[in-house]
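DOMAIN: structural biology
WANTED: fold as tokens
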Amino acid sequence: MARQNKNFAKLISPDSIEFAPLPLLIEISHKGESTDPETGETVPYEWTERKIKVHPSEEDFKAAGYLPLEDNPPSATPEEGYHYEPVRYDVVDGKVVRLYALVEDALPTIEEYDAAMEGHLLAERAAKGYTTREPDSYLTSEEPRWRQDAKDWVAHRDDVMRYALGLINSVKSGQRQPPTMAEFKDGMPQIEWQYKEEE
């Protein structure tokens, strides 16, 4: 496969560019004047030679029709459900510029909905300090707080599963359009822990 210098490119169309090849074949023009030995007249001459250059300069690339490539994707973080995507190229101020647009993400897969549901449950229990085992392990605990946490968790987990699996099954069966991931997460039930420490 031929080597390329991806810092320089030629605009082919708004949708495509051609990167500069390496080594680069450049044309060198020679112009001047010489004296005709028979007449003594000054005669202009001009000729072009083609030469392979292994380490071309910026001027060499430009002379061959390749301009510096500028790729500056937006630095702002897009809102959930969107991403920046290169959509076209243009020549601006002597550079080939890659232009970006804000594009809506593809709708999630069933596996991504499922992973989001599991991630939601994991984050909620970890925020409460249950990082090794699930709170329902304490259903028979003699400690009132842990026993209440276990009851809250079982009811909440059922709510989350009913919501998420009900939505996933309705998408699978074609009863509804797939929601965006942001919509899916926004509808996720949030837990309320009932146990309050006595003051």
Notes: Residues 110-186 form one domain.
